[in-house]
Design goal:
The structure holds 2 protein chains of 2 kinds. Chain A is α/β, with parallel strands linked by helices. About 2% of the residues of chain A have low confidence. In chain A, helix 8 links the parallel strand 10 and strand 11. The N and C termini of chain A lie far apart (105 Å). Chain B is an all-alpha fold. Chain B has one domain: Formate dehydrogenase/DMSO reductase fold (Up-down Bundle), CATH 1.20.1630.10. Helices cover 66% and strands 0% of the residues of chain B. Chain B is built from 18 helices and no strands. Chain B starts with a helix and ends in a 25-residue tail after the last helix. Classes of the chains: A alpha/beta, B mainly alpha. The interface between A and B is large, with 69 and 60 residues.
């Protein structure tokens, strides 16, 4: 008899009576036990074998062995993101971030709700920064005269470099505009150790005119920030504040506070925009004036004349009021211009202390100083406009650098970030000038124009890879925390390079940043946790020194009068790739411009009248060709010439050519061939608004990729206007709140009554306790595009390339439809975010032959990618055309070209294969995550606001509301009860879950075009 | 032209010589040139037994070349993805679906001629029914090709069939595309059966005449042991009649259901109740035009003018005129309804069709489909082979464009102006379409080479010799077409 094993005494005793039921290996109650007799079992085995043989045989998939952790790290749940706070700067604007990291890979950027420049929202570059991080064309190794060298050699070189230039003579450092206190501290250390070293700063995205303007009136090193939530009248002068300029997120957030008209009769702020181009901000304007860029200052002076009182400082009076009297600008004001000046002045005065005047980065320093004066006179300072000392040092300009190079002052120049050879004004010809410098060291993200002529190129780390600190315009210091070690180990941050130059071969930037913060250990840990080292506080009221104003204003040569033969050239940062720093970022290249809807290219934008006068064909109208083309032109200024495609865009000032910067680079396979470099004709003296440009048509056509070929709500041929975007004045709305949903027969836009919409089909199974719905407020949506990028980032949406965009194959799940309204001369524009509306009676569902798209009990129109065979019937039957089809295996293509990009993929979202249709899911992965979290707490109802789709989360205007429409108290339900709520194409009986809140404008009645 | 007179059989001597006499109606003869039982058999079988003429080789090689092009196009398509075509968003269906509807339409004449005209005792059909049926089958093969290849993931196409599976996932029976799957496959199956049943006696003839062992075996196998006994004939005729009865509703149903692909959707320009009858009329229209083209080619190539007579051609021209006018009426009615409905989206869809970005396609369609067949009001035109041929080509061009106009213009400009876009085919769209003609032509050439292209047994029943009581002398000669008499 064998030895008996027993586990307990009871076991032992009972064992004598036979084994109890529950201890048998296969109990009859075991649900896993198959209740089969022999014949059925054999049959089943046979059938399985046959199935496996026939079906699996033809559809063999690679077997993938997923290796689980033998010892799981304690706090790591696979697939569960962890969040860290960090921050990111573009030029001098900072946004605090809240970044999701999965298995050590940053995959999604969200706004830091505690950061005043974010408050949970982001801009499109923040969203795209994750893909920028995984750019396969990043520079990877230090290069010495173009040859790869080991990092140790580069480090040794840096450490020894200043030894050659004791005292700093002949040595210079060029930094970009990053507002980093630690960087500034180290620069001053460098300066202290080597007093003769020259320090320069160059950054196209740095608002230099503002800094110089403020410096001129005694506020050197100050930042300006605005609280537009307190402003009733906002005058924006040539600033695309809602489209990406400056602190765009906080400006939008503040501005739209006073745009949320939840009930008829509620007051709304008023936005005046004066600009030469057509921006997203211009599209938001209640009254918009298009004038050449050089007339904007004139406009400001005119408004100032009405506002600046006799009590104002003499210098101020002299430069604004008196100068106007003595030399009325040399410009004959048009009636419209004069009327605008008068009305804007009146409105601003009426809203003194509750208004704001914002001048854009493209306007000269004196205009910024004047705006400060006007804001001060209006009593806005401290209420809507704030000036905060940031401690930003005044560094040499790029012109000074050019002069020093000419003078032979520099023998070594360390360039920390950026590519001045590419983006410095063309007439500085830095390439030739830098050639004279013995040792140029370039720290760059790409092997770019500057690296190619530098003796040393050092790879720059991404902001998500390095420690740093960033001070925003209100004085808040954010901690820039790395989410990941540098992907390429030789990558270093500017702080590291500076520290190495200062003799520390192994710098600890963490310690440097901590030291700058002045925090103790506890405070520092909190700072890193919150992402904020120091909260910005409204300090003492600034003391302006107007005595510097005349000196500033001396630069004002007065407005010019451009003609078709001597055009005004308006250089602007591109709405997506900015000054070119994102030229190799596919998401941004493929992001349509908010107004022109161009992707993958920049174009010389001209008004229809100017194009006609120059004999350029109109490219903005719908054409019967699969490819949209524009005419190639040569633009010359002062003997320098660039080639670019012309594009007619309504809303651009006449005799003005708008030239977006940032294209025509060769950083990698994305940027190659995308757009035209216009910097060569950009003059250093007037880098933004230059006069005297000449256009020569080349007679060739150039294919451009636009995501929208027809730009009006008015049908061609019939002239019937489709009520897609519904718009009224706020005044009209308060008088007639029901106008947005009134029937056609009563003069409204709606074709059918709700009662007459009867369905053949039984409504879908909407038995889920919570029914998801969305509203999009067209009144607050600025069309800034951040939702598109956020969605792309969250949902693993591939880019497709220029050729396919031009063939209408872009994949964006949420797009922004832009419609021009008004006359061609004075157009206005509205934008409408368009994503799957999750129709209850979804037309896509009943036509799918394989039932790949069906309704969830919670009212979502679900897509089963595995089931989809790609008939595209659903896309045809979708009235919104928001379903996207994978014409090719885009994701695989991307993986082949850019293998690193796969690291950005959201593990909770399927990466789609060729041949399937995809679309917005309301971020179903986030819904389920919230549901699981609620369920684990033993509850069944997800509280309102717990689920935020990626688009809504990124939106700085909070235009997108999402929630449970079964809950009458949810924000989305309340929004849906507003009279502004309407459904697009309600006559199709779709019962769309996404509805829109009609757009309102609050125009100054005196400025309304007649008949509007 | 009278080689068969020398090979007159005993039967010929017993039966009186044919002198242009229709034993049924006493109408104009359906077979001319003094054909008799033997000469019919010899003429029809001779096409197969003799070496093919040069013309056949030319057509065959061209078709084979195009078939190769089809193979290449499909290889590229499956390897690269449907993106090689010009389709985009919003135009999700392009040439593939246009071609599908085009080929299904062509596949209508066969069944109509075989089944409907059979039930209506239209004896003139006997000359062309075999040919038309073959054309139908091959057109349906081409038609089936397109929905198969137009899907994004062809390797999962079996999802459209109700195959029990472990996921318990069934196809969506609300989708018109699924109805298509059944409608077209049933139509294809029935057409093949109908064609094959009709072929059995003739296959037996071929078997009996075959000289090579292989031919005897193959024809013998397909002839299913046919010996021509009365019992065989009785069963055969019942089966044929039943199948004719079964196939007749399919003529109406298939294209009605194909039209549902469009009509059941809600797209302006697609969502119209007129589509089923309009599509059926259009299908018959294009099918007859295609039969006309092929018959004219075949009678010329194989010298079968006495069997494919001018009477056949003229009757087909009449059908083309009738259905062409029905289609024209439908075009007009669509416009009327678009206006009468008061639906602005619908109105725009039709104004845009006629005057918008695809107006060129619309006017090609109008001139080919509505204007060109009107010439058939004139008897001279109906009796002019050249005009018949050219107009039939026009009709097929027009009918292709009709499907293009419906499919593409409606999608190109739908509800939201922001999503409008233009569609153009790529080289692979074009090559696939041309390739489908290669498939069709190859099958057609093989059919002509190996299968009696005229229903031998059936056509003998309309010969004067088939009338046991006939006395040609008692009948007035109905002016035979041969001037010699």
């Amino acid at each position: 008899m064998s030895t008996r094993h027993w586990r307990s005494v009871r076991d032992l005793r009972e064992g004598e009576k036979g084994r109890p039921e529950q201890l048998r290996e296969f109990s009859v109650d075991d649900p896993a036990r198959l209740d089969l007799d022999r014949r059925s079992f054999m049959g089943l085995v046979g059938a399985s074998a046959a199935l496996a043989g026939t079906l699996q045989g033809c559809l063999r998939k690679d077997v993938e062995h997923i290796l689980p952790y033998a010892d799981r790290p304690e706090d790591l749940i696979p697939g569960h993101p962890r969040f860290y706070r960090t921050a990111m700067a573009i030029g001098d604007s900072v946004v605090g971030l809240h970044v999701a990291s999965v298995d050590g890979r940053p995959i999604k950027v969200e706004g830091n709700p505690d950061h005043p420049m974010s408050r949970g929202a982001t801009n499109r570059w923040n969203q795209a920064s994750v893909i920028h991080l995984y750019d396969p064309d990043r520079s990877q190794k230090p290069l010495k005269k173009g040859q790869e060298v080991p990092q140790s050699e580069a480090v040794a070189f840096l450490a020894g470099l200043l030894g050659t230039y004791q005292g700093g003579g002949g040595f210079g450092v060029l930094v970009d505009g990053t507002p980093s206190p630690t960087l500034w501290r180290m620069l001053s250390q460098l300066q202290a150790a080597h007093p003769q070293a020259s320090l320069y700063q160059h950054d196209v995205s740095f608002n230099r005119a503002q800094a110089e303007g403020l410096a001129g009136v005694g506020l050197a090193g100050h930042g300006v920030h605005y609280d537009l939530s307190q402003a009733d009248v906002v005058l924006v002068l040539d600033a695309d504040v809602f489209g990406g300029e400056g602190d765009t997120v906080s400006l939008t957030k503040g501005f739209t506070q006073k745009r949320k008209v939840s009930a008829p009769g509620q007051a709304m702020n008023r936005l005046f925009v004066v600009e030469p181009r057509f921006t997203a901000t211009g599209a938001m304007a209640d009254n918009r004036l298009r004038v050449p860029g050089s007339h904007v200052g004139e406009f400001l002076r005119g408004v100032g004349g009405a506002i600046i009182t006799d009590a104002a400082p003499a210098a101020l009076r002299k430069e604004v009021v008196d100068r106007q009297k003595t030399e009325p600008g040399g410009l004959a004001w048009s009636d419209r211009f004069a009327q605008f000046v008068a009305e804007v002045g009146k409105d601003l005065k009426a809203a003194a202390g509750r208004s704001a005047v914002i001048v854009g980065e493209r306007q000269p320093a004196w205009a910024h100083a004047l705006a400060a004066a006007i804001n001060a006179e209006l009593g806005n300072v401290g209420k809507t406009v704030f000036y905060t000392a940031l401690g930003r040092p005044t560094l040499g300009t790029v012109e000074a650098l050019a002069a020093d190079l000419d003078a032979g002052k520099l023998r070594a120049l360390v360039i920390l970030g950026g590519s001045p050879v590419y983006d410095a004004p063309g007439d500085l010809d830095l390439a030739a000038r830098l050639a004279k410098v013995e040792t140029v060291v370039h720290l760059g993200y790409y092997v770019d124009e500057t690296s190619k002529l530098a003796a040393w190129h050092l790879p720059l780390s991404h902001s998500l890879e390095a420690w740093g600190d960033l001070v925003s315009s209100d004085g808040t210091v954010a901690v820039q925390q790395p989410l990941i070690a540098p992907l390429w180990e030789s990558a270093q941050s500017p702080l590291e390079v500076l520290a190495r130059l200062l003799g520390n071969p192994n710098p600890d930037t963490y310690a440097l940043v901590k030291e700058t913060s002045g925090q103790d250990d506890l405070g520092w840990r909190r700072a890193v946790h919150d992402g904020i080292a120091k909260k910005g506080e409204p300090g003492a009221a600034p003391t302006f020194d107007w005595s510097g104003l005349p000196a500033l204003c001396a630069a004002d040569k007065g407005p010019t009068r451009p003609t078709a033969r001597a055009l005004e050239l308006d250089f602007v940062r591109d709405s997506a790739v900015l000054d070119g720093r994102y030229a190799n970022t596919g998401w941004l290249q493929e992001l349509p411009d908010p107004i022109s809807k161009l992707t993958w290219d920049n174009a010389a934008f001209l008004s229809p009248a100017t194009a006609k006068e120059l004999g350029l064909s109109d490219s903005g109208t719908p054409v019967s060709a699969v490819e949209v083309t524009g005419e190639l032109i040569e633009v010359s200024l002062n003997g320098r010439t660039v080639k670019i495609v012309a594009w007619v865009l309504p809303g651009v000032a006449d005799n003005v050519v708008v030239l977006p910067l940032g294209f025509g680079r060769d950083l990698g396979f994305i940027s190659k061939g995308a757009g035209f470099d216009v910097t060569p004709i950009r003059p250093a003296a007037t880098p933004w608004v230059a006069y005297g440009g000449v256009i020569k048509p080349l007679g060739e056509r150039y294919v451009v990729a636009t995501t929208q070929e027809y730009g009006l709500m008015v049908e061609p041929l019939t002239g019937v206007k489709r009520p897609v975007v519904r718009e009224a004045s706020n005044e009209g709305y308060s008088k007639d709140p029901g106008q947005f949903t009134r029937l056609v027969k009563d003069g409204g836009p709606e074709l059918m009554t709700a009662e007459s919409n009867v369905s053949l089909w039984v409504p879908p199974n909407a038995t889920g306790g919570q029914q998801w719905g969305m509203t999009i407020d067209l009144n607050t949506c600025t069309g800034c595009n951040v939702c598109t990028i956020a969605c792309q980032s969250e949902n693993n949406i591939p880019i497709v390339g220029k050729e396919r965009v031009s063939n209408g194959r872009e994949m964006h799940w949420i797009r922004l439809d832009r419609y021009f309204t008004g006359s061609e001369d004075e157009p206005s524009a509205v934008v409408q975010p368009m994503a799957c509306a999750q129709c209850e009676m979804a037309p896509c569902e009943n036509v799918c032959p394989v039932a790949a798209t069906t309704h969830s009990p919670e009212g979502l129109n679900d897509m089963a990618y595995n089931r989809c065979i790609g008939t595209r019937y659903c896309t045809n039957n979708c009235p919104f055309k928001v379903r996207r089809y994978n014409f090719f295996n885009y994701n695989q293509e991307r993986e082949q070209k850019a293998p690193l990009e796969g690291m950005q993929h959201n593990p909770n979202v399927t990466v789609r294969f060729r041949g399937v249709v995809e679309k917005c899911t309301y971020c179903v992965q986030r819904i389920n995550e919230a549901k699981i979290a609620v369920k684990r707490q033993g509850q069944s109802v997800v509280p309102d606001g717990a689920i935020v789709p990626a688009c809504a989360q990124a939106c700085p205007a909070d235009a997108i509301l999402f929630g449970d429409i079964n809950d009458p108290k949810s924000r989305v339900s309340l929004a849906k009860t507003e009279p502004r709520n309407y459904e697009v194409l309600r006559e199709l009986n779709l019962h769309a879950r996404t509805s829109y809140l009609a757009k309102l404008r609050n125009p100054n009645p005196a400025l309304q075009p007649k008949g509007a | 032209m009278s080689s068969h007179e020398h090979t007159a059989s005993l039967l010929d001597q017993v039966a009186r010589p044919a002198t242009g006499y229709d034993p049924v109606g006493g109408r104009d003869p359906l077979v001319t040139d003094r054909a008799d039982f033997a000469s019919i058999t010899n003429d029809v079988c001779g096409v197969i037994e003799r070496k093919p003429p040069v013309g056949w080789w030319v057509f065959f090689l061209i078709s084979l070349g195009l078939l190769g092009l089809l193979g290449l196009s499909l290889a590229v398509l499956v390897y690269e993805g449907t993106g090689v075509w010009g389709i985009n968003s919003p135009v999700g269906w392009g040439w593939a679906i246009v071609n599908f509807v085009f080929w299904v339409g062509i596949g209508h004449a066969g069944t109509l001629i075989s089944a409907v005209l059979f039930l209506f005792r239209q004896k003139w059909r006997t000359g062309i029914n075999r040919f038309a049926e073959a054309m139908t089958i091959f057109a349906v093969v081409c038609a089936l090709l397109f929905p198969t290849i137009h899907v994004g993931r062809i390797w999962l196409l079996h999802y459209v069939f109700p195959i029990p599976n472990q996921m318990g996932a069934w196809p969506n029976f609300r989708s018109p595309l699924l109805w298509d799957v059944f409608a077209v496959s049933i139509y294809g199956t029935t057409s093949i059966l109908f064609w094959y049943i009709g072929l059995i006696p003739d296959l037996a003839t071929m078997r009996d005449r075959a000289k090579s062992k292989i031919a005897q075996r193959v024809y013998g196998a397909f002839a299913l042991g046919w010996r021509g006994s009365t019992r065989h004939w009785q069963h055969y005729e019942v089966a044929y009649l039943l199948l004719a009865g079964l196939a007749t509703p399919l003529v109406l149903s298939v294209h009605s259901i194909v039209s549902f692909d469009f009509a059941v959707s809600q797209l302006p320009g697609w969502h119209t109740t007129i589509f089923p009858p309009y599509f059926v009329a259009g299908a018959i229209f294009s099918g007859f035009a295609m039969v006309m083209n092929l018959v004219i080619l075949a009678r010329w190539a194989f010298k079968l003018e006495h069997i494919f007579t001018m009477k056949h051609l003229e009757n087909m021209a009449r059908v083309i005129l009738l259905t062409g006018s029905m289609v024209g009426y439908a075009y007009a009615m669509e416009f009327f309804i678009a206006w009468y409905s008061g639906n602005p989206n619908e109105s725009f869809a039709f104004i845009n069709r006629a005057f918008g970005n695809y107006a060129w396609a619309y006017w090609i369609m109008m001139s080919c489909n509505v204007i060109s067949p009107q010439i058939f009001w004139f008897k001279k035109a109906r009796n002019n082979v050249f005009i018949l041929f050219v107009v039939s080509v026009f009709v097929n061009i027009g009918m292709w464009f009709e499907r293009f106009v419906i499919t593409v213009t409606s999608l190109s400009r739908d509800f939201l102006p922001a999503s409008w876009d233009y569609y153009s085919p790529t080289i692979w769209d074009i090559s696939t379409f041309l390739g489908s003609f290669g498939l069709f032509g190859t099958l057609m050439c093989l059919f002509i080479r190996f299968v009696p292209q005229i229903a031998i047994a059936e056509i003998k029943t309309v010969l004067p010799a088939a009338d046991p009581h006939g006395d040609p002398a008692a009948h007035k000669s109905h002016g035979t077409v041969e001037g010699a008499h």
